[in-house]
């Protein structure tokens, strides 16, 4: 009986280790595929912006951000607004600091609409609010110094739902509201406009309202319509 128990124990241990190994391999492959896609795309977009900027006119509105901005069709949701889209899916505050010229300063915009920070919770080497806010300060400081006539509209970081396709984003659940308080304080400090879109999109659990998103992270058509209706008057007020 003791030998049989020992044998079964070894088999159980072996099966457990096998399951763990498969899990680790799946996680590793998933991350490799994810980053294999993200980084080349970011560089592709940066190069594209450099080429496009040569044909762009100064004095327009520039939307800057990550996939939420990248996936927003400005002609559809902001018709009649002379605007350029400088969103890059997967980008972080660290990434934006490396492309300030091609995304903002080369365009000499009248208004910048900024939304960045969600991916910091998933991809940044330091996903603390302190790190994100430090980068936000650098971003706003650069605009303040290099383009003092440019007005800035800063959107709050949006809520995330538990059904979000990437578990790492869930770290942001308990931190996004505090992050947004910090972003709002920085906007007050620099004299820029802060827009609380988080409250517009949250449900009773302070997560993304699934009426406005398919994956718990990115707005769907209804979400983009709601956001643009809320944001457009703020942007036009800055243009007046």
| Cα distance spanning the termini | 86 Å
The CATH superfamily of the largest domain appears as SGNH hydrolase
Counting structural domains, the number is: 2
What form results from the Cα inertia axes? globular
Strands across the major sheet, in which order? 2-1-3-4-5
**Uncertain regions spanning at least 5 consecutive residues:** 19-33
Number of strands: 5
Order of helices and strands: HEHHEHHEHHEHEHH
Number of H/I helices: 10
Average of the residue pLDDT scores = 86
Bin the helical content. Answer: 40-55%
Task: Kindly describe this structure.
It is a single chain. The chain has 240 residues and is an alpha/beta fold. The chain has helices at residues 2-53, 67-70, 74-77, 93-97, 100-103, 120-123, 129-146, 176-190, 198-201, 221-239, and strands at residues 61-65, 83-87, 111-115, 151-155, 193-195. Strands 2-1-3-4-5 form a five-stranded parallel beta sheet, with helices on both faces. Helix 7 runs parallel beside helix 8. The chain is globular, with a radius of gyration of 21 Å.
